[in-house]
What we know:
The complex is a heterodimer of chains A (about 290) and B (about 130).
Chain A: H1 4-59, H2 68-71, E1 78-84, H3 94-111, E2 115-121, H4 123-133, E3 137-141, H5 151-166, E4 172-180, E5 186-194, E6 210-212, H6 215-289
Parallel strand pairs in A: 1-2, 1-4, 2-3
Antiparallel strand pairs in A: 4-5
Helix pairs in contact in A: 1-6, 3-4, 5-6
Chain B: E1 5-10, E2 15-29, E3 32-36, E4 43-47, E5 50-56, E6 61-65, E7 68-73, E8 76-80, E9 84-86, H1 92-107, H2 113-129
Parallel strand pairs in B: 1-8
Antiparallel strand pairs in B: 1-2, 2-3, 2-5, 4-7, 5-6, 6-9, 7-8
Amino acid sequence: xxxxxxxxxxxxxxxxxxxxxxxxxxxxxxxxxxxxxxxxxxxxxxxxxxxxxxxxxxxxxxxxxxxxxxxxxxxxxxxxxxxxxxxxxxxxxxxxxxxxxxxxxxxxxxxxxxxxxxxxxxxxxxxxxxxxxxxxxxxxxxxxxxxxxxxxxxxxxxxxxxxxxxxxxxxxxxxxxxxxxxxxxxxxxxxxxxxxxxxxxxxxxxxxxxxxxxxxxxxxxxxxxxxxxxxxxxxxxxxxxxxxxxxxxxxxxxxxxxxxxxxxxxxxxxxxxxxxxxxxxxxxxxxxxx
Amino acid sequence: xxxxxxxxxxxxxxxxxxxxxxxxxxxxxxxxxxxxxxxxxxxxxxxxxxxxxxxxxxxxxxxxxxxxxxxxxxxxxxxxxxxxxxxxxxxxxxxxxxxxxxxxxxxxxxxxxxxxxxxxxxxxxxxxxx
Lengths: 290, 130
């Protein structure tokens, strides 16, 4: 059995761990509120953008010559996956959930004999994927310096993706991120952004629009913006999810630490009592033998 | 009958402005300035750098935008833009910063004609502000 001194030290160390996790939980809660707010505020933009594109693509006259970003290159040989993770750890299953989702997709792609390219956003993702898919990672972006998700970062990623698309480096692009549902539930998502997947979405309005300049020109201007917008949306959702996930993970850790302190305290008291009893017995039996 | 309609400006971070007593909006559309009044036909267009003028009962407002998309439908005008500044909040130094940036962009040689055109527009608009 551990000595009294050892137990005391352990209790102290668990207590200080608990303090840290508690503080992290508090910080995450405050950040979560902000992240959630900006995720909600960012929604109208991406929704409107989607609507406009939907209206446009319905109004487009010449489907054959539609911009490639909308209709695809006509083949599905090379897949580009943008895996978005966090830059920091200690956030529960947040990163591993995305990675798991992404990996199962990778396996499917590779089984079909297609080519795979990966861009990781956030350092945790590249750390986890490096071991198995190291040769597939073509780019690794990290926004450690920016405090909050902002549009310019998203735009950078978006422009890079478009550049690579125009250079013919891939045919299909999918982004992986965690969608924020609530504090305890985040759903890993795989969303195809190139070619744009509008299937299953009905055009809500029958109204016809006037376009100025014509549809094709607007579309070819709008689609690259839409890529950035989608990536930005994913970043916002991701940052809200990260904080939510960290908060619940830290909450658990704090509780577990509390339980551990209780258990150790009981053990400490027991062995202290045992030591006292032992000493008493020794004194009494010593006195008796005299 | 009222001659007012609703305008909503959103940027990626948030809903920038919502106003429902607007009588006229002038936007710098790609093919020239375009004034929008109530009951305009449904239209989608995109913006070049310029000034959005919003005329309403509660006062006129001017905004500087660098890009964006406008959609008008059922007397709802939505403007999506990534860069927008209220001219009332914009002071000289901010203007100079933007102008400097735009000039740098316009002087790059490795950009295509369209971005060159847009950058030139930016410079022009910002210069007229001064």
